[in-house]
Amino acid sequence: MNPLIDQLSVAALVGGALAFFIVRFLRKRAAGKNCGSDCGCGTSKASKAGR
Q1: Transmembrane residues, as ranges (predicted)?
Q2: What is the pLDDT of residue 42?
């Protein structure tokens, strides 16, 4: 294969993986801010009391 195509395909794979994890992190972060303690989603403040 052409070395340029190899480099571009690797860069696209790495960029896609980074974008996936960044979007996943931001969604979890946004969901935690809107979550009440009585919703039952498992992100309650009581579970963090063991620190």
Answers
A1: 6-26
A2: 59
How far is residue 17's CA from residue 1's CA, in Å, rounded to a whole number?
Answer: 23
* Rounded CA separation 33/7 (Å): 39
Would 7 be classed as within a structural domain? Answer: yes
> Is residue 25 situated within a structural domain?
yes
- Average pLDDT over every residue of 4-15: 96
* Lookup: tokens for 31: 């969901």
CA distances to 4, 5, 7, 48 from 1, rounded to whole Å, are: 9, 7, 10, 52
- Does residue 5 form part of some domain? yes
Domain extent for 9: 1-30
